[in-house]
DNA sequence: AAGCAATCACCCAAAACGGGTGATTTTAAC
DNA sequence: GTTAAAATCACCCGTTTTGGGTGATTGCTT
């Protein structure tokens, strides 16, 4: 029985905290080195705990899980953070991912899923429950009923990357006047009259 | 034994095609209504097949899986496409997601994982193998060693969204001159002298 | 034959941009 | 409690970009 994956659990709900602990302690190569009810409590101890995996509740008193991620990654760059959450709002998911979470599980995940996910993450993989995967994938999907033509979409894409019309023209090997002409049509179709509005509308409607 | 999830398999490798077919046909509520060696072959038949799930190989002769996704979604908007692939380059993953794939499995996925994923996707979820999840998550993670300060990052973020300095100033309730000052510092730190270069560098280095 | 997409042209005034140089205040770290 | 870094604002300059109007040509698709 070799325990080589060191796990820390930070979860304010004591029932859940204990449940996770007993679940994971029973796995052969898992070792729950410590559990905490808040990040503020865990903060100073984490360096000694030196976890490979940190299970982190996103809703907590004091420092929230979201705020805690970058701090944890700062003091323990090699640890993998797995977020536990009840809800899965798009904003929270992306903030967690941006801050450096390696996994994202909703609390309705089965015991098996949790154990599996820790293995995957410890091996350098990513873990997402199906709810989260759905949110992430949806965020990528473009609207297939865009009013913009292929060329217009291409041009708006480049503009959304911060390029000027002149740069777009150079990159596409067309005249500046042509780009201007396309942009005018884009503005009419999207009913806007500026770059930023066009980008905003096109992004919210998933045209780009 | 009620077969209610209709599945179509499009995969040019006949061995794999048959393997998937027999694997999935044995599942109680799955019904493999047809299999094809290429999308061009499948194209006209898909309307009659009316699959709930389409398993699609990404590397195929003729129309590639990537090109096929939007066409499939066009003629069968309600079908869920699950991509099968050997490799998992970031570009392919994102193109598939953008085009409307609901799932993404590498071919080393276990039989159980495949069966599970189809269930999840059929229920409206998303499915990703751990390799893919890792790629997706990595793409989100920002560089924690950015030379930019919090405010500078915030401002560059807004500029990258297409806003002008004036709009940024209004939004952050600070003076235009302050924004200009920050932007100047950003340009120095990133060693650039234009919006588009700053955005480009900051994005490739994951500062924003 | 008609319509749409993509291409280029010229006019105009307003807005935004990039660079320089400098100052003050607030915040954070040692 | 000092000191450094971050955030704030100010005014100079000339150049580039932007948005709007109006119109034309070519090619593809239906």
Automatic annotation (TrEMBL), chains A, B:
Q: Which domain of life is it from?
A: Bacteria
GO biological-process terms attached to the record: phosphorelay signal transduction system; regulation of DNA-templated transcription
Q: Which terms are listed as keywords in the entry?
A: DNA-binding, Phosphoprotein
> Transmembrane among the record's keywords?
no
Matching SMART domains:
HTH_LUXR, REC
- InterPro entries in the record, alphabetically? CheY-like_superfamily, NreC/VraR/RcsB-like_REC, Sig_transdc_resp-reg_C-effctor, Sig_transdc_resp-reg_receiver, Tscrpt_reg_LuxR_C, WalR-like
Q: What are the HTH luxR-type domain coordinates in residue numbering? A: 141-206
UniProt domain Response regulatory: residue ranges:
6-122
Q: Which residues carry this modification: 4-aspartylphosphate?
A: 57
| Any one GO MF annotation of this record | DNA binding
In the UniProt record, does the keyword Phosphoprotein occur?
yes
* Xref: Pfam families: GerE, Response_reg
> Which named protein is this?
Response regulator
Record the organism. Pedobacter planticolens
């Amino acid at each position: 029985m070799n325990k080589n994956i060191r796990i820390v659990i930070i979860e304010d709900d004591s029932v859940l905290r204990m449940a996770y602990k007993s679940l994971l302690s029973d796995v052969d190569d898992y070792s729950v080195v410590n559990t905490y009810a808040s990040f503020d409590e865990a903060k100073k101890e984490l360096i000694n705990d030196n976890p490979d995996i940190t299970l982190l509740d996103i809703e907590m008193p004091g420092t929230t899980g979201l705020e805690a991620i970058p701090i944890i990654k700062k003091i323990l760059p090699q640890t993998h953070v797995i977020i536990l959450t009840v809800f899965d709002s798009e904003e929270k998911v992306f903030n967690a991912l941006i801050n450096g979470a390696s996994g994202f599980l909703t609390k309705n995940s089965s015991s098996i899923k949790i154990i599996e996910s820790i293995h995957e993450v410890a091996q350098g993989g990513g873990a997402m429950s199906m709810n989260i995967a759905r949110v992430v994938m949806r965020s990528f999907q473009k609207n297939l009923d865009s009013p913009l033509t292929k060329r217009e979409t291409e041009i708006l894409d480049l503009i959304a990357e911060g390029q000027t019309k002149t740069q777009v023209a150079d990159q596409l090997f067309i005249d500046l006047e042509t780009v201007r002409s396309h942009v005018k049509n884009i503005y009419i179709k999207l009913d806007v009259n500026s770059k930023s509005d066009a980008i905003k509308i096109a992004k919210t409607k998933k045209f780009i």
